[in-house]
Amino acid sequence: MAVPVDDAAPAAPTPPPGPPPRGFRSAELGWPRLDRIPHPPRRVPWLGDVLGVSVRTPVQDSMAIGRRLGPVFRRKVLGKEIVFAWGADVVADLCDESRFAKHVGLGVANLRPVAGDGLFTAYNHEPNWQLAHDILAPAFGRTAMAAYHPLMLGVARRLVERWDASERAGEAVDVPGDMTRLTLETIARTGFGHDFGSFERDRPHPFVTAMVGSLTFAQRRNVVPPPLLPLVLPRAARRNAADIAYLERTVDEVVRARRAAGVAGDGNSDGDGDLLDRMLATAHPVTGEGLSDENIRRQVITFLVAGHETTSGALSFALHYLALHPDIAARARAEADRIWPDGAEPSYEQVAKARYLRRVLDESLRLWPTAPAFSREALADTELAGGHLVRRGGWALVLTLMLHRDPAVWGDRADDFDPDRFLPEAVRARPAHVFKPFGTGARACIGRQFALHEAVLVLGLLLRRYDLHPDPGYRLRVGERLTLMPAGLTLHLTRRPDRPGA
Ligand code: HEM
């Protein structure tokens, strides 16, 4: 394994006390012995570690580099140096909430022009994070989830209608496109009572196009300093401004319609309805404070984006693997037939009983965690496994994609798809913090149960109804735009024999 180190690099000066500065913090500021951390062998002056990598696949390139360099490594691109971590010991340290917290930097900070101090992009110290978290957490509890279930089923029925039509016409289905339709409609209906009409459109809804546009543009902030973007990429910057304006207009319209309907904030609501109802009508139980209009706008955008993009990828990868492994699909289907024997639609409680399907989903999220990395920063000077020193404010990117394939934890065949890795006894035998598709700690995913319920429900419904046939020429290609998605994935379907209600 090549482990280049810089000879006798000088220790960086200790940063001044006070809150860590915002904006990008290069690794020299936080890692006094950066010289001990390997980087790719051939650094190009000024450009950095760019040989053999592509701007389109930064995460997969980092995984390949991580395999060569080991559990802690660094990459420098255009003067920005980043420390990556994927070894189980080091990640366990980084997940220790008494020493580390979420770091809002890089890809997440780039989203601030769109999502501001919404839950996902808020800095830990911003008061709106705690306020919104406390107001919205009950919207993901058991009672709320049970109320979303019939709405989720309703959206899934529309997907099935679309897939039935494709099956009758002998056409392949566009898996990522249809999973995006499904998950966008699901979060829009359950969260905000809104219908984007995605299933009635052949092309993606303009909201999706604007969202993809602004996510792609956000990535460019990694390469070009934000103040220079309008000068270097004037057309893209104008397009981005139009995309953000469109997202904001759409959200404002959703909020206006709800206010006009008088559902919340009119004195008749106790704010225990959907997400929007809670945002508009609920006050903090202790302080009595509510969310401002501007913050509600940020939260609605956050939930519409975070609530569908990652789940659609997870469903798409799971369908890819189910189509490739008919034996696994048959086991999952037998379970679905057993839980819903008469072909009736699954009840809320029955979805949680689909343990094997859940393992299929976990295994898909292990191989392709659709949010492939998260960042952690040190709360005080500390030392990581392996003797790496980190200063307060120093941060690392946890490469979940590689953590989930660490051969020391997952074995020699870590790249193989095997849902039985998630049998309860296998899970118990593994150390903590080795499976992190939903992040960690206080800033872990608030929508985890929502995503899991939706995905297991939909996979069960689809498997009961169709046999899935892969395109024999298809080789998995993974697209990256903050989240991961199988690119160009299509499947052929055949209807299974009709059973009552199926
Ligand atoms: C398979 C699907 C999903 C995956 C893999 C996923 C993954 C993640 C991860 C890794 C984080 C932490 C990011 C960080 O530390 O920087 C996160 C946070 C978040 N997710 Fe998800 N997510 C999924 C579905 C959802 C859904 C369905 C919703 C909403 C309905 C949602 C809303 C959020 C929000 C609001 C946060 C920020 C939480 C906070 O900081 O307080 N996610 N998600």
TrEMBL record:
One Pfam family from the record: p450
Positions of transmembrane segments: none
Cofactor annotation: heme
Keywords: Heme, Iron, Metal-binding, Monooxygenase, Oxidoreductase
Chain segments carrying region Disordered: 1-28
Xref: InterPro entries: Cyt_P450, Cyt_P450_CS, Cyt_P450_E_grp-I, Cyt_P450_sf, Cytochrome_P450_monoxygenase
Compositional bias annotation for Pro residues: 12-22
Superkingdom of the source species: Bacteria
Biased composition (Low complexity): 1-11
Record carries keyword Heme: yes
Keyword check for Nucleus: no
Protein family: Belongs to the cytochrome P450 family.
Name of this protein: Cytochrome P450
Organism: Actinacidiphila acididurans
